[in-house]
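Revision sheet: structure tokens.
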Amino acid sequence: MFKKISVRFILLEWVFLAIVIGGSIVLYGIFAPIYYNNYKGEIILQAFEDVKETDFKNISEEDIGMFLEYEKENLSFTIADENMNSVYTTKSNEEHVIHRNIELKLDQYSENPEIINKNSKRTKTLKLLGIVRQEGILYYVCIRDKIENVYSSFRLTEKFMVAMFIIALSIGSIIMYFFSRNLVRPIQNVSRVAKRLAEREFGEKADENGSYEEVNHLAKCINCMSGQLQDYVEQIEESQKQLLNQNIQKERMEKARKDFIANVSHELKTPLAVISSQVEMLQYVEEKEKEYYYVSILEEVTKMSEMVGNLLNISVMEHHMEKMKEEPVSMNDVISYMLMKYDALMQKKKLTIQTKLEEDCYVLGDREYIEQAMSNFIMNAFERTGRQGNIAISLRKVEESIYFSVYNEGERIPEEDMGKIWKSFYMEESTEEAVGHAGIGLYIVQNVIHLHGGKYGADNKEQGVEFWFMLPAFGS
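Predicted:
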């Protein structure tokens, strides 16, 4: 029951009124009399100071006016000399007043008087009993204020405030009840829509134009979530269809892997057979002919080493066995290193290298991987370019990316094969030693660029092919 908003609003209103009005009643009952007594006490003390300035032998009209002003504050004065002769009294029955207020209480009078608060069953009085000396004569001054009427007003006010508290509690409860009902109604509407969402019914929408901004915001969030959930459900259904297709693709991939292993096994057998036959020949040939066989064996070993190295790189990238470093990499420095590294190789084939490089091209990533991808592009161009051919290397900024490309003269790639050249199991029929070079090399480039969040591709040009990739620029 107490979890309902309407009940909690009513309870909150009760607590608020109890604290504000009830607290006011209690504080009023405690501190109002104290405040009033202090206030009146200050007036009586000030009146005594003014009375001391009065010439008791010759009371003037101005003095009478002063007494009358204080009497408007409900004060009464009784002043007599040491012989009990009246100097000034507020009431007409002077002898009786002097006898009661002065003669019977002479022992209570003082030249430094204090306020006396007298409370009895019948009366409540504040009074001051003071002595004033003028020209050697003692004058007794009694200043009184009956406050029982004020205390009656206090009690009446307290009763009135209690009545107002009860009325406010009743009216406030009714207002809070209808207010809470008006607030709960749009929340119930949002709750109903949320329940429909749980049942995967996305047609109903929550009202976004209610009376309360917070509830409208909640309704907008529910409607937004409804649209997103609907999209997610559709994506899941689409993903299920894709999973079926992926299962078929996995089967094809497994077959491709088996074919790849068979091809690699075949390629490894050839150099091994050559090495074996040449090692056997070494024991029969003359010393001057052995140099030829040493060089031939070294070439075959190098070929096998490159093939095994590429296979290991593919395995590492596919299974993420190494943690990729992330650091600023200067693409200009990498290209300079590549050109110097392969300069002798290019000159041996009499290739012309043209470069167009922008300055300050930086990316964030692993330099070793990026260097390998760029090397694979350059070596791919080297293998595809005929003797005395041209290779063009370009580096530039494109919006917030760094664009790197390698163009080589030579045969163009058939359009139907453009999507296949990046696969690790693809072998170009027109290229010798394809497994150990172009096919695996481009597959490595693909993995490197994926790891760095970039894009890659190849485009046929008029007299050759351009291979390219783009990586996010560092600091963009």
